């Protein structure tokens, strides 16, 4: 702003304030007081021009400020007018919307009323048709009414037709209940027969399983009997073999006892051995045979090329001492 004012003043001084310049010879010839007055005049003229420019600028600024204030007021007025117009438009839109809503509600109400009227007309038509059907049915059932009144007059047990119909209705209900009970009984009977058949099937299947188990047990019994027979035959064979072995052992013991008795009797050896000690008896017989072999060897000279047969050693280490026999050196 200051730069623009300076340019403006410079232009004004250059265009409007034209100062006459004094020639050099004239300025040099003038007095200092004259030059001072001239300078003061120039300064006064510049000050007046500057003051006029300032006044003009101030007036222009005041006019601009007034214009700005007027524009602000106009803007505020326009804003108020716009707000009022906007409120008016909103109110108009709301009124129009309410009017449209009321019109829509009125149309919907009219449609509902029309539908209700159509429904009522249909119901009325249906009721009229039903009344016509009931009237035709009444005309068709009038003969039955006359018949019921005649029955009521003939029976004389009931006061009126509804009482008679109620009685027969109760009888029909009792009959229906009895029929329902009979049907339930038939159903229970069918269920009982079904359970009986199921029980029979289960019993037959259980009987078949039992028969199969009995057959298996019989097969096991036969196998066990066969095993028992085989065991008995094997045991009989073992017993027969044991009997044979026992008999053979008895024969061996008897033969050993006979040999023992013969040897002791022949060699005059005392019989200090138990009869059941077969091993000791065999040892005694062997020792006797060894003694006899030694005696034979002493009595008969040994021939060249011949060697006497060596007897086996005795199983018992007890030496024998008797009257005429000599104990061999191996037994001393």
From TrEMBL:
InterPro entries: CFAP_domain-containing, DUF4200. Keywords: Coiled coil. Residues 37-152 form the DUF4200 domain. Residues 40-137 form a coiled coil. Residues 307-332 are annotated as: Disordered. Pfam families: DUF4200. GO terms for cellular component: cytoskeleton. It comes from Cochlearius cochlearius (Boat-billed heron). It comes from the Eukaryota. This is CC42M protein.
């Amino acid at each position: 702003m200051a730069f623009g004012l300076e340019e403006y003043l410079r232009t004004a001084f250059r265009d409007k304030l034209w100062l006459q310049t004094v020639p050099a010879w004239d300025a040099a010839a003038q007095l200092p007081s004259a030059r001072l007055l001239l300078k003061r005049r120039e300064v006064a003229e510049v000050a007046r021009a500057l003051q006029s420019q300032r006044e003009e600028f101030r007036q222009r600024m005041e006019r601009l400020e007034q214009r700005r204030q007027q524009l602000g007021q106009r803007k505020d007025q326009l804003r108020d007018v716009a707000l009022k117009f906007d409120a008016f438009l909103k109110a108009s839109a709301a009124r129009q919307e309410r009017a449209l809503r009321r019109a829509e509600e009125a149309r919907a109400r009219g449609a509902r009323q029309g539908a209700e009227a159509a429904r009522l007309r249909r119901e009325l038509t249906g009721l009229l048709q039903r009344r016509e059907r009931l009237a035709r049915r009444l005309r068709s059932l009038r003969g039955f009414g006359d018949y019921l009144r005649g029955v009521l007059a003939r029976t004389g047990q009931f006061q009126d037709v509804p009482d008679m119909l109620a009685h027969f209705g109760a009888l029909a209900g009792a009959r229906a209940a009895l029929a329902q009970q009979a049907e339930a009984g038939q159903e229970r009977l069918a269920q009982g027969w079904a359970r009986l058949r199921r029980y029979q099937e289960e019993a037959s299947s259980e009987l078949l399983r039992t028969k199969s188990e009995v057959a298996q047990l019989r097969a096991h019994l036969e196998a066990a009997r066969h095993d028992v027979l085989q065991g008995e035959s094997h045991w009989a064979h073992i017993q027969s073999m044991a009997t044979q072995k026992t008999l053979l052992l008895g024969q061996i013991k008897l033969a050993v006892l006979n040999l023992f008795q013969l040897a002791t009797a022949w060699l005059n050896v005392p019989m200090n051995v138990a009869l059941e000690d077969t091993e000791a008896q065999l040892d005694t017989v062997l020792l006797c045979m060894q003694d006899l072999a030694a005696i034979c060897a002493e009595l008969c000279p040994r021939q060249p090329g011949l060697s006497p047969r060596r007897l086996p050693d005795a199983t018992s280490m007890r030496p024998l001492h008797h009257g005429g026999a000599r104990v061999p050196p191996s037994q001393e």
